[in-house]
Amino acid sequence: MTSQTTTPSLGAAYALKCRECGATTDLDASYACVECFGPLEVAYVPTVVSREEIEAGPNSMWRYESLLPVVPGAGGRPGLQPGLTKLVRADNLAAALGAKSVWVKDDSGNPTHSFKDRVVAVALENARRLGFETIACASTGNLANAVAAAAARAELKSVVFVPSNLEAGKIVTTAVYGGTLVAIDGNYDDVNRLCCEVAAARDWGFVNVNLRPYYAEGSKTVGFEVAEQLGWRLPDAVVSPVASGSLLTKVDKAFREFVGLGLVADRPYQVFGAQATGCSPVSQAFAAGHDVIRPVKPDTIAKSLAIGNPADGPYALDVVRRTGGAMADVMDAEVVEGISLLARTEGIFAETAGGVVVATYRKLLREGLIDPAAEVVLLNTGDGLKTLDAVAPTSGPTFTISPSYDDFENHYSEVTA
Ligand SMILES: *Cc1c(COP(=O)(O)O)cnc(C)c1O
Ligand SMILES: [Zn+2]
């Protein structure tokens, strides 16, 4: 329910507002402030919504539509219906780590198996509103999956740009939806630079370039769901993976919005950020006490997090510092251990980004940076089936035998001895 709006066509959203200087502009396809080049964010008029109204909504992220920049759809919205993924109590993982209370928000359950379906859903609604017939993106993999699938369902054209060294599991799972898949000999930051040029020249809706302010709001639904699924309350801490830094900042924004709406009680919480050491510009800035982020050249198996020049890095640092959290990073071998630990303890097969989160949580515990008694929500943002290469070398048959009973008994007693 919105009280009043100046642009009723987009719910409670009334403008794009510069995060640096506060200048406002129309709700069109732009992402940088004309005054100071600062990033633009969606601004809303005050909204009122009750727990009951949300609970009566669709079983998807659209139950929060009154808190998103979308035309109110009264539950009848088209598309892949992402969200309302499982919040899994992870007692076995907690026990293995000597922690008390751990949850896994498992966004591998989304339509294309990562949290990117959420951001694409909000961007696509706006692409449609603004009349774009082609949607596009610069992607580290999962976003390309999500854009290609959503475009197929919406009967829009898609053009997605990815680094050519992506995991086969992400190339195939994007190409299968049709659309144009452009592989670029370069890293994500090269891809992103090219996409900014293409966006300036073509009338396309780039979900994470000219539609980025809308896209970014979609990540709030992760935070909304965590709070609702905990029984309308906030956890002590969240550990979020960091690529551009957008997801981390929006989970915090979601918590603050819920507090502001009176949907959850106000209480302190800590936000922690997780990166792979081979691409850890935000973690390095945190360790050095810097506000400015020095771009790096990514080299890690956590390709979905391999953004060397993260657009929202400084804002992610602000959130972590304001909430008393921390940023940390883990080596690729630890990422594989993290994937394996989560799979063996909870039966959840995470992609490399999830391995980064689990391993970072373990490291934060070991270093005393997070209280083992704290109730923690770990964000698993993607599915391990897309990054099989990461675990294939350490995951194979326990033994291979001829189809002989004796052979089986011999080998089995050996491994269980
Ligand atoms: C994109 C992505 C992230 C990080 O997203 P940002 O909002 O750019 O920080 C995390 N995990 C997975 C699996 C992703 O695909
Ligand atoms: Zn500005």
Describe the structure.
The protein is an alpha/beta fold. The chain folds into two domains: 2-48 and 116-215, 3-Layer(aba) Sandwich (Rossmann fold), CATH 3.40.50; 86-113 and 219-394, 3-Layer(aba) Sandwich (Rossmann fold). The chain is 38% helix and 15% strand. It has 15 helices and 13 strands. It has helices at 51-55, 91-97, 116-129, 142-154, 168-175, 188-201, 212-218, 220-229, 246-260, 281-288, 313-322, 332-346, 352-366, 388-391, 405-416; strands at 13-18, 24-25, 40-44, 86-89, 101-106, 134-138, 157-163, 180-184, 205-206, 237-241, 270-276, 327-330, 375-380. A six-stranded mixed β-sheet has the order 4-5-13-10-11-12, with helices on both faces. The model is unreliable at 1-8 (pLDDT under 50). The structure holds pyridoxal-5'-phosphate and zinc ion. Pyridoxal-5'-phosphate is lined by residues 114, 116, 142, 241-247, 304-305, 351, 353, 381-382. The site of pyridoxal-5'-phosphate has 16 residues, from helix 9.
Topology:
Blueprint: E1 13-18, E2 24-25, E3 40-44, H1 51-55, E4 86-89, H2 91-97, E5 101-106, H3 116-129, E6 134-138, H4 142-154, E7 157-163, H5 168-175, E8 180-184, H6 188-201, E9 205-206, H7 212-218, H8 220-229, E10 237-241, H9 246-260, E11 270-276, H10 281-288, H11 313-322, E12 327-330, H12 332-346, H13 352-366, E13 375-380, H14 388-391, H15 405-416
Parallel strand pairs: 5-13, 6-7, 6-9, 7-8, 10-11, 10-13, 11-12
Antiparallel strand pairs: 1-2, 1-3, 4-5
Bound molecules: pyridoxal-5'-phosphate (PLP) and zinc ion (ZN).
